[in-house]
């Protein structure tokens, strides 16, 4: 069976027949990430300007009830045990947050904010587990996906809801070319900013082909990722928005469907160069196996 014919199926934990493309690509043994690629989330300790929604619009409560903001704590020999990194993510169930593995790969603890479009008004929840994809490679940024399990289930309301993932009703489109998508995050709002935005920002972007994306990122634009370009090359995410959701709206129900996770971009310009996302439909089985497995325990 082909991936294209099966990626729209509703998966179950017992579905052993679904075929996925390889989650590993053979890179040269001496491969190094190009110097003009930025992959780091916004780090409080070093004051680096590494991410933002460029030239976006301000979002308000109830607009993106699935959006989260979180603080990841991990030990670092340079900054000490309290090094913190700030990332975004999305609610996919009462217990689980979907995000990028490069935000959580070294974290031992995460505090997740939900329920508001303003980080100062959010309610924060502690993590119970952090599950990074076992094949995540920080050198090539492949399989940049992770799940955060919360200590206590969320109580859904108008400001806290799960985003829809692909299933039998919301079938996948392998390219999404020329379709308007929305990316959101709490990153810096322009190149001159020195602090994160407390208010959620969003902007529309358009997917481009992986062949076109390879002109900017060469071998990194594998089938595991999806690339977008901002409107008129004036808008887009950067790595302070790492882990945040890329959604496309279902034309019939007007429901946001998450198709990507903000992964990396170019230091040459966040709006002028494509943004790269983890392509979610490839990992649907992994996501559901993790969720069902932990629930059984």
Short overview:
This protein has 297 residues and is mostly beta strands.
Number of helices: 4
CATH architecture verdict of the largest domain: Beta Barrel
Uncertain regions: pLDDT < 50 for 5+ in a row? 1-22, 42-52
| Strand numbers in spatial order across the main sheet | 10-11-12-15-14-13
Q: What are the secondary-structure elements, in order, as H or E?
A: HEEEEEEHEEEEEHEEEEH
Shape: globular
Feature tags:
297 residues; mainly beta; Thrombin, subunit H; 2 domains; six-stranded antiparallel β-barrel; 4 helices; 15 strands; globular; disordered N terminus; CSON008767 protein
How does this structure look, described?
There is one protein chain. It contains four helices and 15 strands. With 297 residues, the chain is mainly beta. It has two domains: 65-162 and 284-295, Thrombin, subunit H (Beta Barrel), CATH 2.40.10.10; 164-281, Beta Barrel (Thrombin, subunit H). The strands form two sheets. A six-stranded antiparallel beta barrel has the order 10-11-12-15-14-13. A six-stranded antiparallel beta barrel has the order 4-5-6-9-8-7. The protein starts with a helix and ends with a helix.
Detail the topology: elements first, then pairings.
Layout: H1 3-6, E1 37-38, E2 42-43, E3 57-58, E4 67-76, E5 80-91, E6 96-99, H2 101-104, E7 109-114, E8 123-132, E9 146-150, E10 181-185, E11 201-208, H3 210-217, E12 225-230, E13 245-249, E14 256-266, E15 275-279, H4 284-296
Antiparallel strand pairs: 1-14, 2-5, 3-11, 4-5, 4-7, 5-6, 6-9, 7-8, 8-9, 10-11, 10-13, 11-12, 12-15, 13-14, 14-15
């Amino acid at each position: 069976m082909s991936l294209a014919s099966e990626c729209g199926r509703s998966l179950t934990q017992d579905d052993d027949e679904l075929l996925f493309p390889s989650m590993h690509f053979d890179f040269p043994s001496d491969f190094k990430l190009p110097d003009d690629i930025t992959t780091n989330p916004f780090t409080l300790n070093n004051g680096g300007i590494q991410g933002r929604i460029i030239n976006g619009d301000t979002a308000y409560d109830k607009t993106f009830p699935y959006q989260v903001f979180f603080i990841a704590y991990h030990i670092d020999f340079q900054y000490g045990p309290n090094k913190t990194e700030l990332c975004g993510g999305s609610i996919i169930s009462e217990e689980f947050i979907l995000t990028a593995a490069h935000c959580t790969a070294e974290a031992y603890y995460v505090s997740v904010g939900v329920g508001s479009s303003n980080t100062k008004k959010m309610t924060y929840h502690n993590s119970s587990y952090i599950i990074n994809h076992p094949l995540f490679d920080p050198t090539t940024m492949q399989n940049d996906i992770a799940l955060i399990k919360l200590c206590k289930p969320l109580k859904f309301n108008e400001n806290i809801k799960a985003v829809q993932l692909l299933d039998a009703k919301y079938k996948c489109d392998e390219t999404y070319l020329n379709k308007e998508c929305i990316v959101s995050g709490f990153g810096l709002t322009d190149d001159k900013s020195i602090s994160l935005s407390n208010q959620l920002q969003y902007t529309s972007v358009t997917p481009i082909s992986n062949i076109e994306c390879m002109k900017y990122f060469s071998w990194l634009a594998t089938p595991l990722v999806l690339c977008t370009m901002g409107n008129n090359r004036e808008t887009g995410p950067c790595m302070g928005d790492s882990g945040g959701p890329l959604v496309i709206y279902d034309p019939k129900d007007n429901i946001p469907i998450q198709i990507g996770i903000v992964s990396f971009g170019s230091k040459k310009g966040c709006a002028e160069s494509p943004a790269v996302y983890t392509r979610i439909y490839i990992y649907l089985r992994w996501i559901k196996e993790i969720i069902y497995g932990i629930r059984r325990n």
